[in-house]
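Sequence in, structure out. Go.
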Amino acid sequence: MIINKKLVTLTLSSVICASLAGCGGSSSDTSGSSFNGGGVEEIIGIAITQSNADEIIADGIANPIKLTSDLLYFGNELDIDSLEIASSTDNSATYNCTSGGTVTITEVGTTTTTSSSLVLDYDNCVQDDVHFHGESAVQTTMTSGTLADFGSKADDWHGTKTSSLTELERTTSTSNGTTNVINGDIVIESSYIADTQVFQDHLTSENLSYDVTASDARESSYDFKNLSFVSTEDEINGTAVLSINFIADHASDDFNIGEMQMATEPALTLESSVLQSGEVVFTTGVSSLLLEAVGNDNIDVALDLDGNSTYDVTLSSTTWSSFFD
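Output:
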């Protein structure tokens, strides 16, 4: 049985999630100022105002990026090679997780050097302060390289993982963390080019859903469609690029956004972990938030109240690096 692990380096998604959580605050009228966000289609959800902008950013932008990036790298916390085998059959093995519970991995059909179909059944598995429960059926196909290459800094490789997630629960930290229950089908296409040392991951889904319970028991849900998340890392040039686009419905115990749309165009680009360019446009209720990189780590946040593609109110100006002081 071949079990694959992915070595995860610094991801742009984690940088963005940390930074967007701090956006908002002071406001000043800059009526008539025009940013480069451009027009977006009408989305029927709650209108964005100066008073709810902070919650919109946290619940509509930061949280979806965090959720999606967690799913992109889901399973890296679980190092199968370090676990003890509790039992096995011809086509499956059950492993004891280090802090309780088990994970059973079953081969479906024939596993080759370039393709496999596995079902991972997590039974209250706790590993490195992360709790897993539920099922994931994963089909992996390599168009170049082998299964052992997936996620490695080896020769050129290219592969696709198609996963069906059923009540897949992930809690971190186990003592006082957020629990995500995930359902839906996702496709992750990944590649590495050895000569240029470029990694790329592209996650897509039409029916992904998250039910989220925070450590304070606050509950919320995210139902995605047309989800596309692209992460590219160039190790030689020290650059990273992120593009995330989706339409989704959001509801929570005390703050419902409704339908919302996020688009990055042009994509966000970092050099040596410093944000240099790119834009995020977040739309709901015929109003939009624009987060625009203006160079040298600086970012402006502005609000279009009426959907006319003119950003009338500046909410904040800040830097990426200030979130890491």
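Check: The helical segments are 12-20, 53-72. The radius of gyration is 21 Å.
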